[in-house]
Amino acid sequence: MRSYIVPIGVRLLLAICCTLVGGCAMQKGRNTLPAKQQLVVDQLVVHSDFHLPKNHRLIRELTSRRNEISKILDIPTSDESIHVFLFDDEAHFQAFMERAHPEFPGRRAFFVKSDNSLNVYAYWGPRVGDDLRHEVTHGYLHSVIPNLPIWLDEGLAEYFEIKRGKQGLNGPHIYSLSNRLRRSDWRPDLARLEALRDAAELNQQDYAESWLWVHFLLSGGEKTQKLLQNQMKQLIRLGVADSMAKAVAESIPDCEAKLIAHLEQLEGKSSQPNSSRPVGAIENSEGAF
Ligand SMILES: [Zn+2]
Fold first, then answer.
1. Among 124, 208, 245, 265, which residue's CB has the most CB atoms within a 10 Å radius?
2. 60 contact partners, CB below 8 Å, separation of at least 6
């Protein structure tokens, strides 16, 4: 939906992604981090003030996603802890965020990466599954890839936030892009996405298009999947990568037309839009403030 650069007064890498909260009315509540329970499962350390069973299906899904991401993208896993601060309700979450990060926009969940920690902040609510799958995906990716381009970071998080068994199909994105295409309001342009450096530049359409490119590449067979995997390998090895737009254009003739055909095919599979989940992201570089 919208992304922001958040000034933090210390050397800090941030990668924050989030969901708009409904309305601005915030109840005042406890404003400290949840700390009564600390559940350690593989790479995740889940902090909460309520009991969360270790074998809760959401926890199981989040931990298994680590290996799925590793396998699909052909990247290693890390053992760096991802701290998930899971607030018991929205009021508690908002009260903490207002106190600890008043400069952050109003959102439903955040991923924050600093030099020495990977933190997810979210609250237990109706969308907690989507939120955690999305933000924890950022955590898994950032624990092994230091410098992920913003379009790819968000495209992958949007893909992997979808529940298991749905092949990464994001109904709202399909609906939104298809409508824009019919209105001649959008054409795919990976080079434009790739040129976005500042997360504040990404809008909801950019999130949707980033997701679509990721879905297209991961669904197109070994050759297109390899393009994405090669990009990840370069990023891990060098911290930078060659242009993905150029690689895709060279390997897939008429790639934009094929992307649109892919979208049309997905639209046939996705009969109705799911409830929309606008998201935003923050990514900024070290020492910029
Ligand atoms: Zn995100």
1. 208
2. none
